[in-house]
């Protein structure tokens, strides 16, 4: 067991006040050396009572005399020279085998500084022949340590080497744990000795003050636990201050600690500090069954061995840390390359959970981000995690948090203790607090203590003074409710991973922001383009309304012509939409328009020549031109009777210009119009004005002839099959007679009034209109509805609940929509007919006729 570096008075005070640091080490020195302290003016201020035995001078006579009067001038000069080392070294300067009195007596001398005093320790040295290459022994032992790449292997080899170097019966490597308890991780002992390997000693076995001294002074020797000690005279200086013996090798220790060693059956002990980054990592603890003293040279070799071991330990731990950095960097690179900006941490949960497990073992993993919770393995449920998240919100922001006993810090965790005992938490944001959490299940641990840790000391017969425990037999404690500990390397990896995840989150946020910005830009462009096109359509319709009325013979004729032209625009727009506003075949435009008016006469119109596509900009113009040619022929030309025909020939010139001819045959005699109507204007002027082409129209008696040229900007050879279109046929349909009470659900008032007029014209007794689902249900509940015309999209709601109600009650219904028949909403009701907007009374009649009401 290591040796607490405290005196009787200090132990008597500090074991009951462990938070108090000792100011001085008081008291006595061991018998193997005497001590003399001098002031800055070389006046002797303190001396140990054994000076008479070791250097032949009484301590009481020495105090108050000059140090230079005690030793020969050459010795003083030599010691002054050695004292220069103290300016650069906070430890002790050493002198080996020096004849300080210029006789045959040799002394080892240690020189250290204690406040304003210089302390000399004189240790008589026997005349023993020593090998001149003692340093090679340390080098050879360290070379064996260097062959190992793990701390366990290094420690075992070091214990073995130190036993050879020091000659002690037992050498243990004692490592401190996070709770300041210590565990024997390596041991070398005699064949008949009980092993302490794996035993754990409570933190109270080495008080806090002693740990601080182990950092200052690397080696501590007790050559005889039953040996005499000698007091220092005077006990305090004229200012009432004791002499600080922190760096002295010969200082005595507390009788309590000596009793502690006797209880263990130890006759002599030596402790050597193992330091890492300036802190106490562990100790070499050496025990001997009988008194054993090792000289200063050997102690110096032991210190050198320990210092070199510290270096090798640092190298191994540094190599492990570098390997962890490499693993963390590799994980960082993999995660950064695998994650894209259109994903969230929750989306890529499976990707990084498997990668993290390669670096930090866990039994369960969960991510909580933006209110979403994903987990895998042994984890809390989402409801259980919500409470845990509130607890985690109280932990320091931006820091990794870990515990192997969650229930001790968060009692509610006992509810899911069979699944989770320890957690490692990586905050991946600040506000809101999002987390990646690694979980470990309970592991039942058997801790072997060197005696009962609950009773490290007991009250003794001297009142409040403490006495050490007497039993050091292995005492086993079964620890429940805790997981395997999170190692320091895992915590470092977690901190590196936290930075990686923050970078991932920032990368995703940046990419999402960029995607959002591009989408917003595209949306703004789309809105601007849509606004432009809607305004153009509205202006075009306004023009159709205003120009068409000038040539109408009657209001009814005007309405029919206007309906037909608007419907032609609607058909053209449908074809453009279905082609995603791309190029559209001319043949499809002609066929759609012919079928809309001619029904049985459609076969009398033929298209010959080259197959060409029209640009989106030219398609609306050509739709109106073809519409006027077809309707004019159906009213006055070749398609007016049963004998005539029309031929449309298309020729694509090498320079990309398309030539289109319209020829009518075998119809009634044609006469030029006495007045120029709006339809004639469209035919003759649209292409030259809007497309920069040409148009020539000839009213021959044998039939109308028209020649058009379309610039290459608006025409190309066909590159794809014609787009299939829904035929919005305006043709003769059976008369439909409506009756009863009808319902129109439409959020646009003008369209609702127009639909009401259409239904009334077809015979409906009464038509109720509604703009919201709630209003429609009130009408359905209060009236017996015979038919319902339902707009699909009502702005902030849909009419689907009303559709379901009509189907359940057997009420015939039609869905009106401007989106077409392929939307998800419409596809929910495949048996309900679809009426595409804009609709006319003819298209409504056709749809109703198909329903066979």
Taking the sheet with the most strands, its summary is: 7 strands, antiparallel
Helix-and-strand structural type:
alpha+beta
Silhouette:
rod-shaped
* Count of DSSP H/I helices: 22
- Output the CATH class name of the largest domain: Alpha Beta
Estimate the helix proportion, in percent: 25-40%
Percentage of residues in DSSP E strands: 15-25%
* CATH architecture classification of the largest domain: 2-Layer Sandwich
In spatial order, strands of the major sheet run: 1-11-3-2-6-5-4
Strand runs, count? 35
As residue ranges, the low-confidence spans are 3-24, 460-467, 722-732
CATH homologous superfamily heading of the largest domain: PHY domain
**Annotated CATH topology of the largest domain:** Beta-Lactamase
The residue-averaged pLDDT reads: 80
- Radius of gyration (Å): 51 Å
Distance between the termini: 103 Å
What is the count of distinct domains? 5
Describe the structure.
The protein is α+β, with helices and mostly antiparallel strands and 853 residues long. The protein has 5 domains: 8-23 and 134-226 and 241-254 and 263-288, GAF domain (Beta-Lactamase, 2-Layer Sandwich); 28-125, PAS domain (Beta-Lactamase); 339-454 and 465-531, PHY domain (Beta-Lactamase); 552-717, Heat Shock Protein 90, CATH 3.30.565; 741-851, Rossmann fold (3-Layer(aba) Sandwich), CATH 3.40.50. 38% of the residues lie in helices and 23% in strands. It contains 22 helices and 35 strands. 34% of the residues are buried.
């Amino acid at each position: 067991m290591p040796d607490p570096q405290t005196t009787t008075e200090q132990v008597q005070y500090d074991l009951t006040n462990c938070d108090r640091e000792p100011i001085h080490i008081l008291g006595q020195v061991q018998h193997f050396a005497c001590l003399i302290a001098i002031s800055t003016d070389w006046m002797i201020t303190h001396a140990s009572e054994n000076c008479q035995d070791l250097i032949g001078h009484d301590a009481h006579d020495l105090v108050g005399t000059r140090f230079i009067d005690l030793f020969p001038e050459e010795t003083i000069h030599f010691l002054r020279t050695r004292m220069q080392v103290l300016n650069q070294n906070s430890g002790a300067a050493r002198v080996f085998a020096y004849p300080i009195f210029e006789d045959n007596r040799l002394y080892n001398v240690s020189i250290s500084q204690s406040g304003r005093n210089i302390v000399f320790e004189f240790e008589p040295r026997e005349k023993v022949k020593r090998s001149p290459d003692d340093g090679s022994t340390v080098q050879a032992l360290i070379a064996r340590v260097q062959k190992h790449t793990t701390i366990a292997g290094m420690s075992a080899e070091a214990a073995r080497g130190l036993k050879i170097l020091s000659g002690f019966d037992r050498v243990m490597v004692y490592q401190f744990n996070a709770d300041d308890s210590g565990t024997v991780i390596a041991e070398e002992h005699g064949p008949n000795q009980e092993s302490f390997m794996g035993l754990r000693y409570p933190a109270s076995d080495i008080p806090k003050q002693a740990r601080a001294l182990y950092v200052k002074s690397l080696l501590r020797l007790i050559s005889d636990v039953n040996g005499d000690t000698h007091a220092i005279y005077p006990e305090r200086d004229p200012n009432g201050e004791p002499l600080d013996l922190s760096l002295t090798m010969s200082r005595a220790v507390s009788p309590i600690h000596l009793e502690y060693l006797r209880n263990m059956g130890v006759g002599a002990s030596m402790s050597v500090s193992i330091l890492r980054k300036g802190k106490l990592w562990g100790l070499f603890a050496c025990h001997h069954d009988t008194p054993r003293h090792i000289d200063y040279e050997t102690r110096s070799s032991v210190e050198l061995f320990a210092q070199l071991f510290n270096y090798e330990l640092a190298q191994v731990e540094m190599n492990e840390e570098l390997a962890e950095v490499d693993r963390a960097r590799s994980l960082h690179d993999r995660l950064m390359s695998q994650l894209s900006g259109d994903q969230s941490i929750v989306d890529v949960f499976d990707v990084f959970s498997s990668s993290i497990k390669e670096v930090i073992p866990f039994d369960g993993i969960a991510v909580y981000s933006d209110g979403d919770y994903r987990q895998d393995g042994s984890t809390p449920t989402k409801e259980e995690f919500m409470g845990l998240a509130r607890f985690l919100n109280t932990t320091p922001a931006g820091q990794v948090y870990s515990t192997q006993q969650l229930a001790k810090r968060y009692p509610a965790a006992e509810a899911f203790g069979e699944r989770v005992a320890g957690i490692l938490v990586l905050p991946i944001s600040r506000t809101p607090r999002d987390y990646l959490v690694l979980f470990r299940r309970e592991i039942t641990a058997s801790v072997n203590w060197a005696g009962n840790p609950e009773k490290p000391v007991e009250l003794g017969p001297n009142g409040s003074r403490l006495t050490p425990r007497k039993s050091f037999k292995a005492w086993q404690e079964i620890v429940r409710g805790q997981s395997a500990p999170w190692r320091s390397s895992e915590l470092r990896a977690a901190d590196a991973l936290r930075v990686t995840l923050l970078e991932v989150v920032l990368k995703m946020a940046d990419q999402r922001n960029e995607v959002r910005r591009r989408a917003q830009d595209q949306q703004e462009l789309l809105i601007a383009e849509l606004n432009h096109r809607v305004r153009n359509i509205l202006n075009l319709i306004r023009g159709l309304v205003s120009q068409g009325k000038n040539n109408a013979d009657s209001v009814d004729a005007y309405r029919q012509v206007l309906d037909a032209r608007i419907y032609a625009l609607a058909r053209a727009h449908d074809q453009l939409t279905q082609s995603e506003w791309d190029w559209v075949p001319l043949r499809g435009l002609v066929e759609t328009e012919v079928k809309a008016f001619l029904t049985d006469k459609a076969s009398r119109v033929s298209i010959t020549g080259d197959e060409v596509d029209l640009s989106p900009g030219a398609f609306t113009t050509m739709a109106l031109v073809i519409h006027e040619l077809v309707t004019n022929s159906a009213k006055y030309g070749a398609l007016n009777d049963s004998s005539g025909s029309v031929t449309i020939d298309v020729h694509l010139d090498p320079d990309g210009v398309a030539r289109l001819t319209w020829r009518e045959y075998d119809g009634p005699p044609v006469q030029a119009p006495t007045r120029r109507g709006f339809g004639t204007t469209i035919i003759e002027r649209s292409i030259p004005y809007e497309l920069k082409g040409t148009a020539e129209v000839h009213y021959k008696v044998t039939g109308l002839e028209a020649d058009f040229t379309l610039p290459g900007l608006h025409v190309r050879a066909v590159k794809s099959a014609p787009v299939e279109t829904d035929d919005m046929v305006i043709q003769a349909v059976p008369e439909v007679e409506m009756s009863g009470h009808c319902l129109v659900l439409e959020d646009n008032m003008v369209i609702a009034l127009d639909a009401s007029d259409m239904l009334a014209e077809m015979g409906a007794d009464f038509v109720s209109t509604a703009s919201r689902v709630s209003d429609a249900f009130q009408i359905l509940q209060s009236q017996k509805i015979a038919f319902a015309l339902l707009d699909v999209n009502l702005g902030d709601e849909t009419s689907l609940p009303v559709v379901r109600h009509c189907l359940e009650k057997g009420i015939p219904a039609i869905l009106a929509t401007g989106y077409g028949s392929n939307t998800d909403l419409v596809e929910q009701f495949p048996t309900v007919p679809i009426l595409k907007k804009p609709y006319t009374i003819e298209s409504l009649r056709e749809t109703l006729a198909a329903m066979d009401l």
